[in-house]
């Protein structure tokens, strides 16, 4: 189980990096407004909920990668060493998006739910989460294969 957790966390970090690249591209294209991880961090920091705060960008990035690692670890434990197929990763990534942006994020009044948020931001977020799920599965499968291949050294 510990190996699955570690492989999943590593896969989740790499998947979050790929997803973050999509989010940055969306931001540079003017589609995002404020980045959701930054908004979530702002809400968690003391002071007025919707006012910019020092350190929110760094905290948002750290929290985003930690959440991605945790979601990756959970996924790896659930698949239990089996190589998941790509559709499962896509469903998982979109499931994280739906549970987060239709559930707990608007529940905490950080961002509006998907159907009331900026359509362009939610399009980028949906694409980003499919990238997350894709990279998660591909990386996890590769780590599982690498573990089974004996070293030549």
UniProtKB/TrEMBL annotation:
Q: Which InterPro entries match?
A: DUF6789 (IPR046739)
Q: Which UniProt keywords apply?
A: Membrane, Signal, Transmembrane, Transmembrane helix
Signal peptide location: 1-25
One family from Pfam that matches here is: DUF6789
Write out the transmembrane intervals: 58-79, 86-104, 124-144
Query: What name does UniProt use for this protein?
Result: DUF1440 domain-containing protein
Tell me what organism the protein belongs to. Sphaerisporangium flaviroseum
């Amino acid at each position: 189980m510990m190996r699955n957790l570690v492989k999943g966390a590593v896969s989740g970090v790499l998947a979050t990096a790929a997803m973050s690249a999509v989010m940055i591209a969306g931001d540079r294209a003017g589609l995002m407004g404020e980045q959701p991880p930054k908004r979530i961090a702002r809400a968690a920091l003391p002071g007025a909920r919707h006012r910019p705060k020092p350190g929110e960008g760094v905290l948002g990035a750290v929290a985003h990668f930690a959440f991605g690692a945790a979601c990756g670890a959970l996924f790896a434990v659930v698949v239990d060493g089996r190589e998941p197929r790509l559709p499962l990763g896509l469903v998982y990534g979109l499931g994280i998006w739906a549970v987060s942006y239709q559930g707990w994020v608007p529940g905490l009044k950080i961002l509006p739910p998907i159907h009331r948020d900026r359509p362009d931001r939610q399009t980028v977020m949906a694409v980003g989460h499919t990238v997350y799920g894709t990279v998660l599965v591909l990386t996890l499968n590769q780590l599982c294969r690498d573990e089974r291949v004996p070293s030549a050294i």
